[in-house]
Task: inverse folding
């Protein structure tokens, strides 16, 4: 391995992180090239993935390779070193918008065929369906997850605590979940005792069979589970929740993960829309069906479809919608100025980010007047909802957390090889007719079975044994290295978790656990245990499955340090490589809006700085490259100084933004390289650079800040114009010249 060229693969993604890359990457490449480390880019943006998947529709110049597939293969090799920035996990409305933009740019792409009419359209839809939702992360995540707030970040948050909404004991905000008929209540699990292939079959009440999936390979020791959600129970629950929100005078909101759970959650979201606007759907059923309205894509789908109607019909429906609003509880808003509600687009409110944001804001969300109000947070399935209710209960009892004193909750998450629910979408079905769904092995033995009704959602999850072993090992390693108690968040009442508990107890025996504190607790017990400790300033590692990995690595960072963008997010790949994710959150679409409008980008690239430092360190270790190690070390020093001097982007126009923050990182990085004495060559190279940069600090910052305040041209949303964006993101000629001199 060590005779290959050391290489870091830096991903080009979407929205705010993509913009930030235009400014940060030239700095990074200038610095790393001095150490013989190549930083190459790979385009895994939504538009890039669309273009890569439809070569036959495009001209030779338009075609690009499938960078995601390439990275997916690389992730399985020991030399993998990938820095992964957040990308859009597209809902159908976003996918359609991206296609439209590309078509407008001369890409003769096919439209997304909602209801394919022939083989060609079926293929087109299947290709787009692979691009939609969380299509990137599961491909790259060939390892488990290690996310935590580094010491320097935690220290910064304690010194400069972010704002926290006060909590009052009589807050009416709460989580509402089904009491029966959900996935939690129906889960059945089984651990395979030998490798086999299974099929998933529906036997209908008339005795006919429909094969939902066949030839699914399972490994020895793999845990499988199946569960089903009753659509009638769901609808009854949603109806009751709506009435209750109205009776209590609180906002109605629903929190799903329609991106990662791209099959089940849009369906559940669609039911919420239909229940909320029931009179409209009842009265106009025929017209809406005729128009092809599909509210699994949100209420916005209805609104855009009725545009096609004659004016009087459209007005009639709009009047009925207004009557329905008047008669219903207020909806939580995504954008009250533009009238966008929680029900408009399934990917606007994503549970991992939305629930912590609500908890940080006194348990409130925004109403249509733009004021915050107590809220009913609807999370239909019970599997993980209790974590949020327990957190709300804790805040009601003890008040808001205090970021200046609270402890930290790092996470070790079981994620590798599409573990658990997040890998279930190819085994999730909206059941076409009442009957029984069975998972049947090669010998015809029925492993799991559920009675289902038409419209129910049935799903199967897989969790392979090797990732579980790796996860237990990672938990023990982190607990030891940080001398911190670790809690496995596993619910002995859940069938899947029972199988996992057996494995955890077995694999813990492979490790020396002397002197470390380990627990297994249900998610609610673990929440209470952990919250009581963080309140007292104590740290507790959460060791969780894939969904809680996602939820907790937004929840705790947002409470502790204000945003999950400041997390160190490492994926030690199971074959020895490293995937370094930047932060633990998303692509901040609101930040792009602000940049385009007023030339201020408030995206904080701290996650990128942290990821790059560990990436360089990993590369240095694997390739015995001392210069790379030194670059990583000095980058960490620079990041520490960056935090000390509070050089993160401000939220408002006119003050330091993302670009200015990059200048300071570069300055401190150059200074750290100038100050070190391990490598004379790098010292000689960076000493003059550091000197010039600090001499020109005032001029550069004034050029950078001076470029703010006016609308920016970036030539697109999903596919940026490289030249325009580069110009917008690198407005300081002085800084550009200094970098070019390296
Ligand atoms: N790893 C990945 O690839 C992930 C991708 N996503 C994708 O991102 C998109 C948006 O998702 P959403 O749930 O809204 O989550 P985001 O994390 O993008 O946004 C939530 C809020 O967090 C704050 N925030 C996030 N990152 C930063 C940062 N680097 N610097 C400063 N503030 C930050 C912003 O708050 P404020 O507005 O107050 O500034 C932002 O509005 C979706 O397409 C989703 O699928 C989501 C999670 C992970
Ligand atoms: O891949 C996605 O869609 C989101 C990922 C995410 O939220 C996470 O890993 O924390
Ligand atoms: Mg997340």
Result:
């Amino acid at each position: 391995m060590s005779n290959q060229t050391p290489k870091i693969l830096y991903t080009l993604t979407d929205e705010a992180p993509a913009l930030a890359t235009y400014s940060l990457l030239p700095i990074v490449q200038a610095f790393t090239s001095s150490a013989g480390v190549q930083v190459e880019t790979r385009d895994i943006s939504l538009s890039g993935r669309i273009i890569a998947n439809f070569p036959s529709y495009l001209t030779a110049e338009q075609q690009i390779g499938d960078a995601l597939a390439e990275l997916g293969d690389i992730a399985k090799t020991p030399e993998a070193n990938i820095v992964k920035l957040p990308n859009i996990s597209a809902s159908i409305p976003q996918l359609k918008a991206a296609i439209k933009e590309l078509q407008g740019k001369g890409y003769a792409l096919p439209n997304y065929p909602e209801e394919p009419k022939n083989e060609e359209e079926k293929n087109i839809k299947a290709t787009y369906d692979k691009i939609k939702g969380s299509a990137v992360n599961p491909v790259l995540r060939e390892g488990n997850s290690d996310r935590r707030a580094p010491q320097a970040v935690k220290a910064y948050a304690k010194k400069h605590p972010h704002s926290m909404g006060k909590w009052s004991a009589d807050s009416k905000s709460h989580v509402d979940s089904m009491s029966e008929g959900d996935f939690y209540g129906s889960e059945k699990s089984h651990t395979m005792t030998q490798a086999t292939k299974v099929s998933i079959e529906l036997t209908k009440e008339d005795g006919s069979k429909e094969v939902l999936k066949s030839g699914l390979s399972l490994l020895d020791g793999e845990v499988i589970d199946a569960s089903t959600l009753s659509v009638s129970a769901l609808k009854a629950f949603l109806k009751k929740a709506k009435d209750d929100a109205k009776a209590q005078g609180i906002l109605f909101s629903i929190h799903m993960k329609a991106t990662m759970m791209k099959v089940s959650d849009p369906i559940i979201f669609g039911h919420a829309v239909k229940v909320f606007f029931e009179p409209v759907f009842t009265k106009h059923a025929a017209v809406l069906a005729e128009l092809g309205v599909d509210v699994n894509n949100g209420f916005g789908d209805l609104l855009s479809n009725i545009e096609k109607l004659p004016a009087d019909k459209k007005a009639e429906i709009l009047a009925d919608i207004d009557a329905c609003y008047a008669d219903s509880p207020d909806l939580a808003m995504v954008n009250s100025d533009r009238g966008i509600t929680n029900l408009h687009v399934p990917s606007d409110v994503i549970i991992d980010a939305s629930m912590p944001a609500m908890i940080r804001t006194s348990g409130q969300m925004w109403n249509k007047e733009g004021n915050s109000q107590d809220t009913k947070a609807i999370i239909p399935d019970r599997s993980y909802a209790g974590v949020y209710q327990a957190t709300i209960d804790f805040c009601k009892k003890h008040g808001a957390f205090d970021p200046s004193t609270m402890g930290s909750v790092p996470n070790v998450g079981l994620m590798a090889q599409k573990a658990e629910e997040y890998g279930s979408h190819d085994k999730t079905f909206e059941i076409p007719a009442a009957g029984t769904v069975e998972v049947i092995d090669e010998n015809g033995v029925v492993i799991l079975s559920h009675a289902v009704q038409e419209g129910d959602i049935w799903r199967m999850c897989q969790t392979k044994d090797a990732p579980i072993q790796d996860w237990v090992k990672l938990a023990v390693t982190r607990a030891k290295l940080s001398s911190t108690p670790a809690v496995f968040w596993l619910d002995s009442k859940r069938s899947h978790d029972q199988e996992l508990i057996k494995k955890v107890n077995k694999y813990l025996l492979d490790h020396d656990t002397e002197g470390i504190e380990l627990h297994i607790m249900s998610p609610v017990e673990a929440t209470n245990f952990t919250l009581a400790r963080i309140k007292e300033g104590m740290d507790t590692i959460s060791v969780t499955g894939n969904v809680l990995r996602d939820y907790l690595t937004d929840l705790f960072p947002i409470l502790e340090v204000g945003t999950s963008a400041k997390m160190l997010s490492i994926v030690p790949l199971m074959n020895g490589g490293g995937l370094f994710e930047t932060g633990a959150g998303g692509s901040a679409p609101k930040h792009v809006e602000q940049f385009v409008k007023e030339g201020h980008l408030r995206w904080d690239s701290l996650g990128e700085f942290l990821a790059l430092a560990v990436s360089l360190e990993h590369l240095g270790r694997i390739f015995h490259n001392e210069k790379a190690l030194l670059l990583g070390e000095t980058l960490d020093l620079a990041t520490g100084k960056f935090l000390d001097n509070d050089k993160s982007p401000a939220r408002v126009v006119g003050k330091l933004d993302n670009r200015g923050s990059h200048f300071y990182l570069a300055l401190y990085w150059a200074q750290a390289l100038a100050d070190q004495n391990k490598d004379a060559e790098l010292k000689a190279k960076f000493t003059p650079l550091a000197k010039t940069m600090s001499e020109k600090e005032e001029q550069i910052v004034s050029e950078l800040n001076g470029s703010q305040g006016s609308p920016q041209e970036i030539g697109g949303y999903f596919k940026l114009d490289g030249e325009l964006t580069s110009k917008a993101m690198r407005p300081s000629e002085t800084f550009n010249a200094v970098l070019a001199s390296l």
Summary: The pocket of NDP (ligand 1) is lined by residues 86-89, 137, 259, 347, 350, 353, 563, 565, 583, 585-590, 602-604 (CB under 6 Å).
